[in-house]
């Protein structure tokens, strides 16, 4: 039956009763401290910042702001733990600790998922089915490598780098922490990690898990704060390696700061992936892939399929089916299990998206938005299509990081490749066709780290991930992800 509540959540064809995940099984403290040397400690400055729920704009908690002095303390703790304990430990023992983290995370998966959605705005379906299981899978996968490193690199002697400084974004908070921490620990490094300012809560829950797992003090240190705290980590002379995931803009600043130092680094940056639909593709599946690629998780995905390249002969049909599908997408409460598109992560990000909606119009694009009604409070954006755009338009070239899709057409295979490659980025891409030969040729010709064929946004800890061009330097995941935390001696 249509209640005012579900009427609000969805204004399309069918009615679903709301199915909200409950919050009575979680506990969020009023205040979180820094996690340094195995203890929860107050920041030197005594300063705290708020983290809010972007779907309601209500405060969830206050979180410590780490200064340079706190970062220094964390790096020193990590150095001591590295020299005295972690690098000396038998690799199989290291593996046991990492397995233990994975198992506790799995046991507490529901709590992690709920807090991830509350703090970051992503639909519970996504945090429950993707973020948290994949985060645990990364710990399981790298735990297995801890005592097999010499088999990963035959004929070489793998040695840890030392202390890794790690800086992560807000779009997959726990998953990015897992991508960073698990391989670093498996290889014998210790860690100082900074979560994003708007999504620190699952990192603090992870600190609890790490403490419960009995990890030796100082092996993982978690320092919350804003960009300044990240810069303090990058500049600290006691750091051996920087692993950064975030925007190309900040990636550039970090690369400059590291130039000429002995620190090694990996940078996972922005993207502007094309989803390429050939006329011979299974169109309904392709439409589902497009929707999954850009609208789920509000387009807050570095490898999002934010451009659609569709072969001219089927373009009208694909756009018609896409608009039909968009009409059924539910925008609203991230905790509702029916929600497809949750809250935009912050007011600032919503303003960025709105700026691009304006730019698109000014550039002459035709704008189509679904009729979804948005909640009155919180940061929300309707799924949006730009059609009639050209390759030089800013909405085709620049990362928007919202549920906004720029649509172009092509006639020939080569035109599709040329258009797909014509942005400063090269993180990912998608190809939809019935012909295997086209898929193979596409994967060779598109300059991007990941190409999905007849699917999109699929992840697995065993496969490497990373970018070309302005999308980054180095690879994470799989064997490549180990390499980034090791020195391979002859
Ligand atoms: P961001 O603004 O670059 O921030 C990323 C992290 O860097 C945050 O923890 C941020 O802290 C910190 N930071 C900000 N300024 C810094 C500085 N000068 N020095 C050191 N650290 C600094 O990116 P975002 O807006 O959080 O995330 C969205 C971006 O991440 C998108 O461009 C997306 O494509 C990219 N991303 C890439 C991948 C990938 O694997 N390639 C994966 C996910 C996301 P505060 O947040 O507290 O300011
Ligand atoms: Mg928040």
List keywords for this structure.
Aldehyde Dehydrogenase, Chain A, domain 2, 2 domains, binds magnesium ion, Aldehyde Dehydrogenase, Chain A, domain 1, binds NADP nicotinamide-adenine-dinucleotide phosphate, seven-stranded mixed β-sheet, alpha/beta, 490 residues, 41% helix
Description:
The chain is α/β, with parallel strands linked by helices. The protein folds into 2 domains: 31-269 and 471-489, Aldehyde Dehydrogenase, Chain A, domain 1; 274-461, Aldehyde Dehydrogenase, Chain A, domain 2 (3-Layer(aba) Sandwich), CATH 3.40.309. It is 41% helix and 18% strand. It has helices spanning 4-9, 68-86, 91-107, 109-120, 124-145, 149-152, 173-186, 201-212, 227-235, 248-258, 283-294, 312-327, 347-362, 394-397, 413-421, 436-445, 478-483; strands at 31-32, 34-36, 39-41, 48-53, 58-64, 157-160, 163-167, 190-194, 220-222, 241-245, 264-268, 274-277, 307-311, 366-369, 384-387, 404-410, 428-432, 450-453, 472-473, 486-489. Strands 14-15-16-13-12-17-18 form a 7-stranded mixed sheet, with helices on both faces. The longest helix has 22 residues, at 124-145. Residues 1-10 have low confidence and may be disordered. The protein binds NADP nicotinamide-adenine-dinucleotide phosphate and magnesium ion. Magnesium ion (MG) binds next to strand 4. Residues 51-52, 119, 198-199 line the site of magnesium ion.
């Amino acid at each position: 039956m249509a209640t005012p509540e579900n009427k609000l959540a969805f204004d399309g064809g069918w009615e679903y009763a709301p199915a909200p995940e409950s919050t009575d099984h979680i506990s969020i403290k009023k205040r979180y401290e820094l996690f340094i040397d195995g203890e929860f400690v107050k920041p030197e400055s005594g300063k705290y910042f708020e983290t809010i729920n972007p779907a309601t704009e209500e405060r969830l908690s206050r979180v410590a702001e780490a200064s340079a002095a706190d970062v220094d303390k964390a790096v020193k703790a990590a150095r001591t733990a590295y020299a005295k304990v972690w690098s000396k430990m038998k690799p199989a023992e290291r593996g046991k600790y990492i397995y233990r983290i994975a198992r506790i995370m799995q046991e507490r998966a529901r709590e992690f998922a709920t807090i991830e959605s509350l703090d970051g705005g992503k639909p519970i379906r996504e945090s429950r089915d993707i973020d948290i299981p994949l985060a645990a899978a990364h710990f399981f996968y790298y735990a297995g490598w801890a005592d097999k490193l010499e088999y990963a690199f035959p004929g070489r002697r793998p040695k840890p780098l030392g202390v890794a400084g790690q800086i992560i974004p807000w779009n997959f908070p726990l998953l990015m922490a897992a991508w960073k921490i698990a391989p670093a620990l498996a290889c014998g490094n210790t860690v100082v990690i900074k979560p994003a300012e708007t999504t620190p809560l699952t990192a603090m829950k992870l600190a609890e898990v790490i403490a419960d797992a009995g990890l030796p003090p100082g092996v993982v240190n978690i320092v919350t704060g804003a960009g300044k705290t990240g810069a303090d980590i990058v500049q600290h002379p006691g750091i051996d390696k920087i692993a950064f995931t975030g925007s190309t803009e900040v990636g550039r600043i970090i690369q400059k700061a590291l130039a000429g130092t002995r620190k090694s680094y990996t940078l996972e940056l922005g993207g502007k992936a094309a989803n390429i639909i050939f006329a011979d593709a299974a169109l309904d599946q392709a439409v589902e892939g497009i929707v999954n690629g850009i609208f789920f998780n509000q387009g807050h995905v570095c490898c999002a399929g934010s451009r659609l390249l569709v072969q001219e002969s089927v373009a009208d049909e694909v756009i018609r089916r896409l608009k039909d599908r968009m009409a059924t997408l539910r925008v609203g409460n991230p905790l509702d299990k029916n929600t497809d598109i949750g809250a935009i992560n912050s007011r600032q990000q919503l303003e960025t998206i709105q700026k691009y909606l304006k730019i698109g119009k000014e550039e002459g694009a035709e704008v189509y938005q679904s009729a979804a009604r948005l909640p009155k409070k919180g940061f929300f954006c309707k799924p949006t299509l730009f059609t009639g755009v050209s390759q030089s338009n800013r909405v085709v070239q620049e990362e928007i990081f919202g549920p906004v899709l720029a649509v172009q057409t092509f006639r020939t295979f080569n035109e599709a490749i040329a258009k797909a490659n014509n942005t400063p980025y090269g993180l990912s891409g998608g190809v939809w066709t019935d012909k295997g030969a086209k898929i193979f040729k596409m994967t060779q010709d598109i300059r991007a780290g990941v190409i999905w064929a007849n699917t999109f946004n699929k992840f697995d800890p065993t496969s490497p991930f990373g970018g070309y061009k302005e999308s980054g330097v180095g690879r994470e995941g799989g064997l490549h992800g180990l390499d980034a935390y090791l020195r391979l001696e002859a």
